[in-house]
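the three lines:
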Amino acid sequence: MSFLVPKSLIRIKQIIAVTGLFLIFFVVAHLAGNLTFFAGADVFNGYAKKLQNMRPFLNFFEFVLFLIFIFHMYLTVFLIIRKRKVRPVKYSVQKSSAQRSFSSRLMTLTGPIIFIYIVLHLLDYTFSSHEGQATVVNGKSLGLYGLVFNSFSSLRHSLWYIFSMVAVGLHLDHGFQSFFQTFGIYSSKYGGFLKKFSRIFSICITLSYVTIPIYAYFLNHYGNDQVIKVGVLDESKL
Amino acid sequence: MNLNSRIPSGPLEQKWSNHKMNLKLVSPSRRSNYTVLVVGTGLAGASAAASLSEMGYNVKSFCIQDSPRRAHSIAAQGGINAAKNYCNDGDSIFRLFYDTIKGGDYRAREANVYRLAELSNNIIDQCVAQGVPFAREYSGYLANRSFGGAQVSRTFYARGQTGQQLLLGAYGALMKEVGRGNIELFSRREMLDLIVDEAVKGITVRNLISGELETHMADAVVLATGGYSNVFFLSTNAMASNVTAAWRAYKKGACFANPCFVQIHPTCMPLEGDTQSKLTLMSESLRNDGRVWVPKRSGDTRNPSEIPEEERDYFLERIYPSFGNLVPRDVAARSMKKQCDEGRGVGEYKMSVYLDFGKAIDKFGKNVIFEKYGNLFDMYDRITGESPFQVPMRIYPAVHYTMGGLWVDYNLMSTIPGLFVLGEANFSDHGANRLGASALMQGLADGYFVAPATVSDYLASVDPIQKDKSSTLAEDSKQKVNQHISTLLKVKGNKTVDYFHKKLGQIMWNHCGIARTPKGLEEGLSLILELKERFWSEVNVLGSAKDLNQSLEKAGRVADFLEYGELMILDAMSRNESCGGHFREDFQTDKGDPLRNDKDFCHASVWEYKDKNQAPSRHQEELLFENVKLSQRSYE
Amino acid sequence: MMSKKITLNFKIWRQSSPEDKGKFKEYQLEDVSVSMSFLETLDLLNEKLVAQNEEPVAFDHDCREGICGMCGAMVNGEAHGPLKDTTLCQLHMRHFKDQDTLVVEPWRSAGMPVVKDLVVDRSALDRIVSSGGYISAKTGSAPDANATLIDKEKADLAMDAASCIGCGACVAACPNASPMLFVGAKISQLSLLPQGQPESLQRVEDMLDQVDEENFGHCSNTYECEAACPKSISVSNIARANRQSILKSLKG
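prediction for all of em together
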């Protein structure tokens, strides 16, 4: 189990980069699932059900994902602890160059935010009942769709979700281009492009994620029954 | 004093190979019994330490800076010569030899110079193998340029950082041996004494961090401690460059040759104020495209752009039509000084001349010029705040390299058995004047190829040193050094070390600089003696000897420079001729060119230390020229 | 026209030994000519201090033309001061205004501990080079220099990387005190050249192992190093070194 206590900084970085990349894939795949929200309760819930039907393969996938996530965090914490030792006396003045991105400065902040977010997110949606009062919209239980829909009716919850997605975007902005650098794909020629690519990519990810709470919030507060009904096309499939 | 130069017999072309055959060898299994100390980690020191270690000797390497990579070789810009003839323009080993001998104004040893030319090719091979990123053509072949007045393109270069790249190559080789445990590296150490008991026995160094004195005993010592330009205070040399190691060896019996031979480099940044600590050199490759001029009228204070073509005097092109701006360094430097002395200098202090790229930019375009000199232009801009694309550069000569040094024989061994002297620290290859792009060549030839063979020869003839028997020598040496240091600390006067260094520099520049006169030298000598006396009663060195004390370090060096300046002047006074870097106004042609006296001065002057109260004695090593005809240098 | 003179306020780190805790001391320096370099200004300050019987500020410096890599300090929070692509010795006072305050601190990193005042111990960088930052070409073993042709483009890239002066500004500026720009530049230079190929992967492993042994941090791709580097060495050199490291792990 020597990989649990990696002795080489570069290996640690590489593992963080690679686990990060897998997590990015997950974020994209998860987003694809989320966007079915716009297609209405039946599609959304159908998608959720389909996933559930894939057990025990899904269990295995979740376990791997869990490991990747834990590893990503564990190694990062390992580096942060080491980092505290490498500059015992701090500078009294330290200016950061303009070159350094905002997102890279916030990595150690966005990381924990994402962690907290994920824990809450799992409690809210994964380890919660998809039935009962919380799932009822307009007098009908809409399962997971209803749960999501209702939770975003709270402004506080929506804002927290949006805030977390911005954190995800910032984390990705640095993380994604950082992956290219750590794996040596970066070069003077393509460096600028890769940085831009990862910025646009992360903005897209954040924007796509936050459309859902905004959509749900506005639907809930300003939409009429019809709209909700339109959102729930075929009730028989529920 | 028996100055046996040990020049091998036989035809010039075969001297080195014959000699190598005759040199004794130490068998590989016995080499680790011998300890060799290498002081200095510039091109010569690093390459010698690495090569000797590769052979299997026990090597200790010493440097004054925090890392061997900082040695001042790193600042050489232009390039390194080699007789590869890759350009098919008629170059050959003999031509490089001939140019070097002639460039040195016939004051160097034929055999040494030929060997240098011969080894030049191996150096390029070695450096390329080490990964030195020399400039290349699009074809992938190595690129060459003509440099410093040479009429063939034989100079290899790595942008304007050739010295840096060659040094990093040698440093890599050194660090490889350090990493493998074959060389023990001692950085931040300053050599303060040479331990001699008939033959060399070791050195005493001061650990510049802890202040502790350490002695290291050895079978041979290699000094590669560079030149003495900083006797002028303002020079292009690094701040730590000093004469101390060589000077203390001199005081232990190593003779000093041609101390008055100093090279003044024509293309340096001018003096801008009395707080200036350094005259930055810019590669003289700038003279390939830049044109040197001053206003025709003295006291002309117009901006350069306001001075029309016909009111400019492109004096190098005018006086030396065939070489123009590319005349050798000493010629260019003297011409510039003359223009400034006659009141046509430009800039705030009227102590500079223009180096104008206007015509080259018009002809080749800004991009081509930037490609060639971009880093030099940037450097100039950074220091002066003026862009050479807009305003002509201003340049003035500065002391740059010293041809004189400890006397060595063909084996690079000094008059102390077992003390070898390499690179700029010795006197051997450049005569009275060094050609551009030859210093790097000499440092590496000495270190990679000559010293490994000749040091082995010496070691083969001695038994490995018995460490226990030498402990009293070591203690003695430590005690003397300690005494010297505490004397410096005890003066407690009211003047800083730099004050004396600056004063010394002014005396040397004014009295023993670009042009020298008997009267000026006399005056200089008495001024130095006076200054020396004041130094020992008025200098103020704060702090203790027990930790990092930069004032104390400097004080020791300046004390030696004060003594050294005296020897330089003595040498300049006794050489009644003008040759190369030594220009005596009383020996010049009608046209103001230097006038050699081959009848009486075709020799190296070799100075032997007597003692504190006695003048050094002057010996001569006669120079025999069998392969070249002595001619008057003419660049018209 | 005479050079302008200004007055500057200095806040300089004074630390008598590695064990000493150290503190800032304030000095005012008048008559600083704007054509002076930063180090010449320190010289002037030291002259003044000696005159007052105060020990001068210890600082490393040597060539004073920006190539030896000996000088360096944080000036107002920036390695080698505010001017881009410039070492401290080439930073001229015309870039400061009258009455400016300059906070001068040594490089701070556990891998490069302070020796005295502004002087730090950079021997760790030497140890990293000695672990593999070279091509093992024994003296005398080289073939003709033109026997191996090298792409001009690659030779130029190698030269870009090779222009590192080993000053340590990258470590000083890095939020994690990582020397990866220094290390990456060397690995990159040697791996770009055909001569460096045979040892290429071993070199990467050895040098990076040495980095771990010294008290340096990891690279987190913030690129502060590139901005601080007086020779504007590109972080693409770190990427190239990283690529070599990946290759090494793939090949085992």
